[in-house]
Each structure stands twice: as structure tokens, then as C-alpha cells.
Fold:
Amino acid sequence: MSNEGRAGVTIVGSANMDIVFTVERIPQPGETLLAESAAHFPGGKGLNQAVAAARAGAATRFIGALGRDENGASLAATMVATRIADDLVRRMPEPTGQAFIVVDGSGENTIIVASGANATVTNLGPADRDALRSTAVLLMQLELPLGLVRSAAAEAHGAGGVVVLNAAPAQALPRELLADLDYLIVNEHEACLIGGSQDLEAASATLASLVGRLVVTLGAAGSVLFADGVEIGRIAAPRVTPVDTTGAGDTFCGAFSAAIAEGRDFADAARFATAAAALSVQVVGAVPSVPERSAIDAVLDARSAG
Ligand code: RIB
Structure:
């Protein structure tokens, strides 16, 4: 895990246009509800995490795909506006990924993704491999094909970079991929699904035995950190009133990776990421809710002063 001579965060991931409906409650099957509002926001777990890393101060590069459509143009503009290097983003004939998101009155959401162009990213080219070999941190999720995620992890890990996987949406993780990870980040739901138990403690223990370092995020309850199979600490989250939790996990992962890239230790990076995620749930939309570095530092300063 030596990061000598490496810089920045590279995200291999998805980019979606989010179509967000705000409702008082999530509808039952067969029920029709009138929404309070509807809006389009840039999103996708990969793009959200890239924006979070960039706004947290990391030199950030994105490897993924957009369609040659209006949504693709809009998401490309988001990358430029947030200073994300987009030279390795493919423009495909398939439509840009889209996510249909319903947010209820408590800020909870349900999400359905139509992958579109994201599903076409199945191979790494020579320029992708160069970028993966020189990055300080590689951050990925599971909205791109799993084979590509495995190849990217192997490339970065083989060259000595730090590999972070946010296993969302949850799916079984091959042992070869687990062996290439330095950090695995999951929420409670993902921990139980991948860890193979309804009991969060048991599932977390299973996952912790499979990777070097594990973060289980618990929403308002903060997160639990594991290293070498044992729990090493808990990070409390600041108390806030959430309006939309969409992208909070992504903000955590992007900010965490930026902090690791700048040399912070595990617990310090998790504290930084927790402050970023707490800020993000107070704003509607994924990308629009991702905080700037100055806002994250202000939360941490206020906490250490109080
Ligand atoms: O994690 C939130 C994201 O999940 C949304 O932005 C949506 O696009 C889906 O990828």
C-alpha cells in the first residue's frame, strides 16, 4: 500500500442522469401517487463519487461511458465544471445511464437504474491501464460490469496503488477481487447481502475476514471500521435533519478516497468522509448535494472545538 510517486483518485464507475420524484411516502405496488416535485440531477454512483473526491480536493480522473445524447452532454459538462479529468470517458451510441429515484418525506429513497452506456465498459485500453498504474487511489462501485471492476482492481493493485471498492449495488464478490482490495465500503443492507447473514454483526465479521479493511456505514448512526478481521473503532455521525439521502454513501466514498490519497490514516479518513456525508443529506439531489472541502473542514473544526 505504498503510495510513493502516485497522485490523485481515479474512479472507474457509472454516470447516470437521475430523475428524482419527491413524494410523501413510497407507493405500494399497484398504487398511483402524485409527486410533490420532479427534477433531473447529475448522478450515478461513479460520477457522484468522482465529484465528492474532486470537491474534497483530490486530483480526480473518471473512467466510464456516456451516450452521445443530451444527458451525456449534460453529465460531461458536470465533469468539466467539477474539474474531473474526463479524457478516458467513452462516448457510446447507447443511451446515457438513467436512474429513476423516489424520495420520501423522511429523505429515504428507492432507485432503479437503466445502465445504458455504463454496461458497454467491458475492457480497459492502454491509456486506462496507464492511469490505473499511476493513481494513488482507485475507487470503484458495482454499476459497471464485474469483469471490468476485477481487471481494474488487479491493474491498480499490481502497481502498488490503494484499491477501494464500494460494493453497491450489492452482489457476490469473487475471491480474486477481494484479494486486490485495500478497503471495502458497504452499508448495512449490502453488508448483510454480501456477508450472507441477516444479522449485521455476523455479516460484518464475515466480510471483515475477507478483506484487509472494511467500513460498514450505518447512516445516521455513523460507521464501524474493521482492520485485519477485528473491529477497530466506530465513527459517530453529526446530528442533522436529512431531506434526501441519495448519494450520501457516494459522498462518503469519494471524500474517504480523497483523504486516503492525501495520506490520512484510516480513522481520520473515515471521520472526514462522515462529515462530508452528513452535509450531503441536507440537500436534494446526488451531485448537487456533494459538499466542497471548505464545508467539510468547517464541520470537523466545529466538532473538535465543541
Ligand atoms: O447512490 C446514488 C446513485 O445511485 C444515484 O445517483 C443513481 O444514479 C444510482 O446510481
Remarks:
- The chain has a mean pLDDT of 96.
- The first strand starts at residue 7 and ends at 12.
- The pocket of alpha-D-ribofuranose is lined by residues 14, 16, 18, 43-45, 48, 99, 111, 113, 143, 246-247, 249-250, 286 (CB under 6 Å).
- The chain has one domain: 7-305.
